[in-house]
Design a protein that fits this description.
The protein is mainly alpha-helical. It folds into two domains: 69 residues, Winged helix-like DNA-binding domain superfamily/Winged helix DNA-binding domain (Arc Repressor Mutant, subunit A), CATH 1.10.10.10; 137 residues, GntR ligand-binding domain-like (Four Helix Bundle (Hemerythrin (Met), subunit A), Up-down Bundle), CATH 1.20.120. It has a two-stranded antiparallel sheet with strand order 1-2. Strand 1 and strand 2 form a beta hairpin. Helix 9 packs antiparallel against helix 10. The chain is elongated and about 55 Å long. The protein starts with 18 loop residues before the first helix and ends in a 7-residue tail after the last helix. 35% of the residues are buried.
Length: 229
């Protein structure tokens, strides 16, 4: 189809686990990069053609994106891009802060703070020594995964896996000032966990995530991603 040639090629990155996840990531990126604007109809056939997929995983992706708030599905009409909302962006990061904070609290309560702090200190030091966004992102992810693993709570892991990224692509490459915010936050978290101070650790996770939310809100405003409703 003619329109399929107008859609950008999918970006390279970590391979999604399913075709539907690949399609969902692609549609998020179309919105983020301005190829699809608020209230635009998502061209399902063109998305499928751009990705070399059938329409089935694209439809599955749109159902998931509707749950996440990215699109709304209207019977017999298709899927339409929802205007993004500043409050939703801030809530997204607040939930991350609360969930990671709970994981850290559980780790402290389990009495593994010393062991965890040693692991996190190594990751934080490595993150402080790189300016490469991809490597920094890998180290930051490993840091937070270590906290979740130390919590030994399958439910926390389930909640985090259910939360999709709100910035498609490499967060630390795309969001200005996100690296120094995260770098400082990781260092401070090492200190609060080493002190086995669960309350301070929860507060630090929330502080860091709220600062990241500020950056994402500013970026979304710059890209005119907040619609009028």
């Amino acid at each position: 189809m003619q329109m399929a040639r107008l859609l950008p090629a999918p970006s390279l990155g970590l391979a999604p686990r399913t075709a539907a996840e690949r399609a969902a990531r692609y549609v998020r990126r179309l919105v983020f990069d301005g190829h699809l604007r608020p209230h635009d109809r998502v061209p399902q056939d063109d998305v499928a053609a751009a990705l070399g997929l059938s329409r089935i995983p694209v439809r599955e992706a749109l159902i998931a994106l509707e749950r996440e708030g990215w699109v709304r599905i209207e019977p017999h009409r298709g899927a339409f891009v929802n205007p993004l909302d500043e409050a939703a962006v801030r809530d997204h990061f607040e939930l991350y802060g609360l969930t990671f904070g709970l994981a850290a609290r559980r780790a402290v309560e389990r009495g593994v703070a010393d062991e965890l702090a040693a692991t996190l200190a190594d990751l934080s030091a490595a993150a402080a020594g790189t300016d490469d966004p991809a490597e920094f992102g890998r180290l930051a992810l490993a840091f937070h995964e270590a906290v979740v693993e130390a919590a030994a709570s399958p439910r926390i892991g389930v909640v985090l896996r259910a939360m999709s990224t709100i910035v498609p692509g490499n967060f630390f490459a795309l969001v200005p000032d996100s690296v120094p915010i995260e770098r400082e936050g990781l260092e401070r978290l090492v200190g609060t966990i080493r002190a086995a101070d669960a309350d301070a650790t929860v507060a630090e996770y929330l502080r860091m995530m709220r600062l990241q939310a500020d950056q994402v809100v500013a970026l979304f405003r710059e890209r005119n991603l907040f619609g009028s409703g």
